[in-house]
Write a structure and sequence with these properties.
The radius of gyration is 21 Å and the shape is globular. The relative contact order is 0.13. The longest helix has 16 residues, at about 140-155. The strands form four sheets. It has a seven-stranded mixed beta sheet with strand order 10-9-8-14-15-17-16, sandwiched between helices. A five-stranded parallel beta sheet has the order 5-2-1-6-7, with helices on one face. The chain is α/β, with parallel strands linked by helices. Helix 11 links the parallel strand 9 (about 205-210) and strand 10. The protein has 15 helices and 17 strands. The protein has helices spanning about 10-15, 30-40, 65-75, 90-100, 120-125, 125-135, 140-155, 160, 170-175, 195-200, 215-225, 280, 300-305, 305-310, 325-335; strands at about 20-25, 45-50, 60, 60-65, 65, 80-85, 105, 185, 205-210, 235-240, 240, 245-250, 270-275, 290, 315-320, 345, 355-360. Among the domains are: about 10-110, Rossmann fold; about 175-320, Rossmann fold (3-Layer(aba) Sandwich), CATH 3.40.50.
């Protein structure tokens, strides 16, 4: 892989700039970015929200401004905007691009789960593994996505994300060939949304094993399953986290898609949840496809399904964006387990580099 690496990563650029740094958005994402800024001695001067969402509130002891007010205060040419929230909504992403056309904007890549930051030092330390995964990827689209996501992680530039977008319909129909699925496992089933998404592509689907640890999301999942009518697949719901073994784990009780081991942080409510290995639930039963979106526990969930992978070689879709190292450690883990898998990367529209999926067929 011959990347044209930037002279400086984002954090070095921010340390050296003379522009005023302002943050777009508040909440958990902003807290994570602020923590990195503080570590590097980077000063964030102000926070702003979209013009329709400013109500005189404050964040980190600063009054939250509107974008218009920030431009008036500093001048668009004199600011760097750090985006601190995530979105896949087209209108929201279009607005982010509009702001990026008016001033210097970055969407810093901070891990969804705690852990190492993907900066230049991290890249240099893991370059051999990063290059090894590049050589394993099976098509040009995968390699293009891989390169652009890595460049995004180093720079925070959202134009790299726009070069790394895939078509979901093509993934289901041409890569996964979902019309042939008879039994699947959805690890991180949330409220049933990905089961609902899969069903139209899989007319032969008879059974789904659905893991969801969060109590509120599991209730919504159960409610969704109750709405399914005759001809729909049987949904076997498991109120547990997908893990390497049967145990108890401490989770952040978020009640949303991000509930999980990643969510146990400052201010997060902690709860104990059941965890289990998919192999323990299947007891040798065949599945044709496993989806892993388990909020940073993908490595452990793969370990907990390796008997199934070795025995039946199901197709896999693995979220590869919760930890900085996921983009290379998860492909290497799968390749070590079954070298006969063909490995692909696909990414759906999102800012930052979320919805990045390793697909194994």
């Amino acid at each position: 892989m011959n990347l044209m690496l930037p002279e400086n990563d984002l954090w070095t650029h921010l340390k050296n700039t003379n522009k005023k740094i302002v943050m777009y958005g508040m909440g958990n994402g902003a807290d994570k970015i602020l923590a990195v800024c503080e570590r590097f001695g980077i000063v964030v001067c102000d926070f702003f929200a979209s013009d329709g969402f400013v109500r005189g509130h404050s964040f980190h002891s600063k009054t939250v401004l509107s974008y218009s007010a920030v431009k008036e205060k500093y001048g668009a040419e004199n600011i760097i905007v750090l985006l601190s929230f995530a979105s896949s909504l087209p209108d929201v992403m279009d607005n982010i691009r509009r702001i990026a056309s008016e001033c210097e904007l970055y969407a810093p890549d901070v891990p969804v789960c705690d852990g190492a930051l993907f900066d230049r030092a991290f890249f240099d330390a893991n370059e051999e593994k990063i290059n090894a995964v590049y050589e394993l990827l099976c098509d040009e689209e995968s390699r293009k996505i891989y390169e652009n996501v890595i460049l995004y992680k180093l720079t925070g530039r959202i134009d790299y994300l726009d070069k790394a977008v895939s078509d979901k319909d093509t993934v289901y129909r041409e890569l996964l060939c979902a019309e042939n699925f008879k039994a699947t496992a959805d690890l991180g089933a949330y409220n049933g949304d990905t089961i609902h998404e899969l069903i139209p592509y899989s007319p032969s689907l008879k059974k789904v094993f659905a893991f969801e640890p969060d109590r509120r999301s599991f209730r919504k999942l159960s409610e969704y399953c109750a709405t399914l009518e005759g001809g729909a697949p049987e949904i076997i719901t498991v109120n547990a986290a997908a893990w390497s073994e049967e145990t108890l784990l401490t989770f952040g009780d978020e009640g949303n898609r991000n509930s999980g081991i990643c969510a146990v942080g400052k201010g997060a409510k902690r709860v104990e949840v059941n965890a289990n290995a998919l192999d323990n639930i299947l007891c040798g039963e065949r599945v044709d496809y496993i989806k892993y979106d388990v909020e940073g526990a993908e490595r452990e969930a793969i370990i907990g399904s390796q008997k199934t992978i070795l025995s039946h070689r199901p197709k896999l879709l693995v979220s590869a964006y919760h930890r900085s190292e996921d983009i290379f450690t998860l492909p290497l883990q799968i390749h070590a387990l079954r070298p006969d898998y063909k490995l692909y990367l696909r990414r759906y529209p999102y800012i930052p580099a979320w919805d990045l999926n390793l697909i194994c067929v």
